[in-house]
Amino acid sequence: PNLAAITRQADVLVAAVGRAKMITAAMVKPGAAVIDVGINRIAEGPLAGKLCGDVDYTALLGTAGWITPVPGGVGPMTIAMLIENTVKAAQ
After folding, report:
1. Which of 8, 13, 44, 75 has the most CB atoms around it within 10 Å of its CB?
2. Are 34 and 60 in contact (CB under 8 A)?
3. What is the DSSP letter of 27?
4. 51: closest CA among 67, 30, 73?
5. pLDDT grade, residue 14 (50/70/90)?
6. 88 three-state secondary structure
7. pLDDT in tens, 47-71
8. What span, in angstroms and rounded, lies between the C-alpha atoms of 1 and 12?
9. Strand-strand pairing, 33-36 and 12-15
10. DSSP line for 3-66
11. Distance of CA 22 to the CA centre of its chain
12. Shortest CA distance to 26 belongs to which of 69, 55, 66?
């Protein structure tokens, strides 16, 4: 019923909601590490077609102690681990 009250308790918040910019600064504990796993394409407006995460990145810059960007955050790490596991499987 009150998602913000729960998310404000987290020292590490992993967002994988599937809704663009759903996690706002009011939902994050100051100094928390925020990992944005979500990836969304903005449908309309001046940024139409651009990618964004489930976290309102710009709004959280002054609140979060650490935050991953979208794009360029967890995606490259996912690809690196996929390649590593593929090489291990081939060996």
Report:
1. 13
2. yes
3. G
4. 73
5. very high
6. helix
7. 888 999 999 999 999 999 999 999 8
8. 21
9. parallel
10. HHHHHTT-SEEEE--SSTT-B-GGGS-TT-EEEE---EE--SSTTTT-EE-SB-HHHHTTT-SE
11. 10
12. 55
pTM metric for this prediction: 0.81
Average pLDDT value for the chain = 93
Are the C-beta atoms of residues 68 and 74 closer than 8 Å to each other?
yes
Q: How far is CA 10 from CA 13, 29, 31, 49, 68, in A?
A: 6, 7, 10, 32, 16
Torsion of CA 50, 37, 56, 17, to 10 degrees: 100
Cα 29 from Cα 11, distance rounded (Å): 7
- The span from the CA of 25 to the CA of 84, in Å, is 35
Q: Residue 85 carries which side chain, given as an amino acid letter? A: N
What is the rounded CA–CA span in Å between residue 13 and residue 65? 11
pLDDT at 74: 85
> What's 14's DSSP letter?
E
